[in-house]
Amino acid sequence: MTNGIVIMHWNERIGAEITGAYPPEAQKRIQIKTLMQLYAQHEYTGESGFVYLTVADLNLVSYYTGPETKYYLVLSLDEDEEGTDFEEGILTITREFMDIADDLDKVKDFLPELFKQVSSFPYFTEEQKLGVFFRDEVKKKIIERFRNEMMVARSDIELWVKQNFDIYVDIEALLDQLMDMGLVKTVSVKGISSDMMFFVQDIMMLRHPPIDIVKKPGDFNIPDSLHKFYVAEVRKFFKSYILSDADNMKIVRNIVTNIDTYNILQLLRHSAMTMGELKSRLNLKEKELGALLKKFWELQMIAVLEDKHKVEFYCLISDFYISKFYPTYNIDTIIESYKNKVQGKKVLLKALDLMREEYYIQHNLAKKKAKEKKKEDDEGVPKVKQLPATPSFAS
User: Fold this and answer.
1) Angle between helices 330-339 and 137-149 (to 10 degrees)
2) Could you tell me which residues come within 8 angstroms of residue 86 by beta carbon, excluding any fewer than 6 positions away?
C-alpha cells in the first residue's frame, strides 16, 4: 500500500523546501538528508526523470521535473511495491500538479486527490489508463496531429510542442509513453537526420448499448415485468444520441477514471442491482453511493426501474467503449503523402512495412482478447477492487 507523497522544490536562495505532503505524516517519515540524497541523484543527470532509493524501511521513487521548474515528486511505497509500476501515474499527476504548483493553497487542497490517483494507477484496467491518457490536452493534440500526418520526425514533434504549449510538458517522457502504449513506433530511416515516429494505433471512444443485457434482460437480474421498460429506455436514449468529444470526456473524467464510479460501472455491466446490493458489494454508505449514482444519472447512463414490490433496480442503459484500434485510414494518408511529395519514398515504404507488421500483431491480439472476454463472462460478476483510501499510518 502506497504510504504518501512529498513535494520538494529547489529554491536557489534557501535550498530545498517542502511545498506539500499527503498525508501530513509523510513529511516526517522522510528525513531531509534522505531528500538531499534524492536531489543529488537527480543532479547527477541534470535532466527530468526518475530515481529510486531504498533507505532503512523506506522505499522511494522520485520524479524530477527538470532544471527549469525544479520540482521533485517523491512517492513513499511499501517495501514490496515496485517504483516502475508508478511511473506512468506520476507523469500523469505531474502535469496536473504543475498547473497549480505556485499556489500552495491549491496544492494543499488537491494533493489528496492526486495521491489517490497515483497510488491507484497500477491497479487501473486498460480502458482506465487510456482514459487518463486522453484527459491530457497536450496528448490529445499530439494524437490529432498524428491522425492527420501519420509520420512525423521526433525532432519536429518536440519543437512543435514547445512552440504551441505554454505549460509544463516533459516531452521526452510523453513521447516515450506514446511508444510504450503502442500508439507510435520510432524508427531510424536512412537519409533522415531525426528518428521518424509512425502512428500505428489510434484510440476510439464512444457510447454503445449494453447489447447482451438488451437481448436477455432476465440473465442480468432485471425482473420479467421490467424487461420491456428497460429495452424502451435504451432505445429512447440511443434514438437521440449524438457522438461528441465533450460527452466522451465527461464520461472519461466522471466515470472511467474515477475509481468509485468505475467500480459501479463494472458491476452494472454484469447485473442490474438494487441499492442494497450495491451498498453490500461496494461497502459504501447510502449517501456516498447516492452521490456516485447521481453522476451516472446526469450522464444518462442508467435507468432506475421499480418493480411491483416497489423495489428499485439500477440498470445500465448506456455503456462506454474506449480502446485502441488499427487505423486503416493511414493508408490514405500514405497515398496522399506520396502524391503531394510530403515524405520521401524511404519513409513511405517504412510506413507501409510498419502498417503491415502492426496489422498481424493486432489480429493475433484480437483473438487472444476474445478468448479472455469469454472466460470473464463465464465467471460472472467481477470482484470489486478495494483500494486503500488512506495509508496505514494515517489512520
Assistant:
1) 60
2) 2, 61, 75, 77, 118, 119, 121, 122
| Cross-strand partners of 321 | 206
Distances (CA, A) of 209 to 229, 235, 266, 301, 319: 15, 9, 15, 10, 6
Report the Cα 82 to chain-centroid distance in Å.
Answer: 19
Say which amino acid occupies 51: V
Model confidence at 382, pLDDT cuts 50, 70, 90, reads low
CATH topology of domain 129-201+329-379: Arc Repressor Mutant, subunit A (1.10.10)
Per-residue pLDDT, 219? 95
Q: Do domains 129-201+329-379 and 204-321 have the same CATH topology?
A: yes
Considering the domain 4-123 in this protein, what is its CATH number? 3.30.450
Q: Which three cell numbers stand for residue 387?
A: 483500494
Cα dihedral sign, 136-139-145-150: negative
| pLDDT value, residue 391 | 35
Q: Between 137-149 and 126-134, two packed helices, what is the crossing angle to 10 degrees?
A: 90
Domain boundaries, the chain: 4-123, 129-201+329-379, 204-321
Domain spanning 204-321, CATH class = mainly alpha
- CA within 13 Å, CB half, 18: 19
**pLDDT given for residue 394 in this prediction:** 33
